[in-house]
Amino acid sequence: MIKLIEIKNMRFPLFWMGHIIGGTPKPWEYFKVENILVNSYDIINKKSAYQKIIEIGIKKFLGFDGPVMLDSGGFFFLKKNIEIPIEEIMDLYEKANADLCVALDVPFHYTMSDLEKEKRIDTTLRNFEIMINSVNMKKVKLVPVIHGHNKKQIDKVINFYQKFDNFDIYGLGSLVPLMFPYTLKKWRIVIEIINYVKNRIGDSKLHIFGLGNAVTILLVLYLGVDSVDSVAWRKKAAFGTIQMPGIGQRFIKKGKSKSWTKQIDWKTFKCDCIICKGLSSSDALENLYSSFQKRALHNAWVFQKEVELFKEHSQNEKELEKWLDVHLKESALFKIYQYIKTLKVKKRAYLQF
Predict the structure, then answer these.
(1) For residue 276, is it within any domain?
(2) Does residue 25 have a cis peptide bond before it, meaning omega lies within 30 degrees of 0?
(3) Nearest CA-CA partner of 20 in 231, 274, 206
(4) 3-state DSSP call for residue 18?
(5) Where does the chain show beta strands of DSSP type E?
(6) Which candidate, 207, 155, 176, 241, places its Cα nearest to that of 7?
(7) Worst-scoring range by mean pLDDT, 95-99, 159-163, 260-264?
(8) In whole angstroms, what is the distance from residue 229 CA to residue 142 CA?
(9) Any idea what the Cα angle at residue 329 is, between residues 310 and 174, rounded to 5°?
(10) 87-119: per-residue pLDDT in tens?
(11) Which of 36, 101, 253, 327 lies 20 to 30 A from 10 at CA?
């Protein structure tokens, strides 16, 4: 048995701040960021950055001394059908000196046929076997990724990985497309998958990739997920939206907000982030409206602060639920939170699928 990952010094639950190579702002230059996730395909696609990272390592390149995770870039296969070069990824993993490196996986959408899903699962497992047998495991802390929308698919993947080792941490992919739109019907499936995977991997940690909303992050952490990442702080800012603690995103337009959910009374808007702190409601809103950079930093701060608050309240389950009861009350996902809470409080078994 090979012990592939050392995670003893990581304080769970973890939030990994997604970063695009060459992108600004870099939140860790403005406030404390605990962890960063970078996409390997993004690195490989930018040759000068790729060469520099191979020479000096990812942390020195970023100017960041905390934990860094390298994602494989499998999401680009799902989104753009781009082939990811496994040899270049393995070379990057061996030389970048990251804390965690995600095995090259091939995600799938829930609307795909079972046959297509099986093909992608098989490719994911082949990639993992190539990587675990080829890279220097003393240098590369490989994270296997679980994909599956039913018990049969999940069992196949986990059984395959456990032939190599009981890993300290697993990733869970192909889940985010199931989360939106925010319907209880879809979220029941999400809950079932997370619960089943958690039961199968026992004491190992579970990471979910690419969450797009700070409230969604709170929900999966409440479900028992140990680690999450998001680059949505940046993407939302580019679309002109800001994250509101406990609520989600809002599109701002000179004092007004457009959204599919309950409107915000901007006259009462108050935020303690580095962009808004000390400003009146109207000045803070105008400030956020004026600049992508300012919206991005505000969003990054909110994402990280939400996870910090979750940690503070999570020492006691009742205290955590009291906080979530109030914190999520105005969110479009509040009914989903109530459903999860009902399952926990009544200690009912989750639906079998």
Answers:
(1) no
(2) yes
(3) 231
(4) strand
(5) 14-19, 35-39, 68-71, 100-102, 142-143, 145-146, 169-172, 205-208, 227-230, 241-244, 248-253, 256-258
(6) 207
(7) 260-264
(8) 17
(9) 60
(10) 999 999 999 999 999 999 999 999 999 999 999
(11) 327
- Above 90 in pLDDT, residue 82? no
pLDDT digits (tens, 9 = 90+) for 4-24: 445 666 789 999 999 999 999
Contacts of 221 (CB under 8 A, 6+ apart): 13, 228, 307, 310, 314
CATH number of the domain enclosing 101: 3.20.20.105
Alpha-carbon span 287 to 135, nearest angstrom: 48
Provide the 10 A C-beta neighbour count for residue 199: 9
Q: Per the structure block, which two tokens stand in for 128?
A: 């993992």
| Residue owning tokens 């989104």 | 79
pLDDT mean across residues, the chain: 90
Residue 107 lies in a domain: yes
Model confidence pLDDT, tens digit, residues 19-49: 999 999 999 999 999 999 999 999 999 999 9
Pair 325, 255: CB distance under 8 Å: no
CA 219 to each of CA 43, 102, 207, 301, 324: distance values in angstroms, whole numbers, following the listed order: 31, 23, 14, 18, 9
pTM exceeding 0.90: yes
Number of domains in the chain: 1
Residue 220 lies in a domain: yes
Residue 38 CA to residue 46 CA, distance in Å, equals 13
- What's the rounded Cα separation, in Å, for the pair 338 and 128? 38
Domain coverage including residue 73: 14-231
Mean pLDDT score, 311-328: 95
Q: How many CB atoms lie within 10 A of CB 1?
A: 6
Cβ contact 72:89 at 8 Å? yes
Neighbours of 127 (CB within 10 A): 21
pLDDT at 228 over 80: yes
Residue ranges in 109-183 assigned as alpha helix (H): 114-134, 151-162, 176-179
Percent of the chain with pLDDT over 90: 80
What are 308's two structure tokens? 């910090």
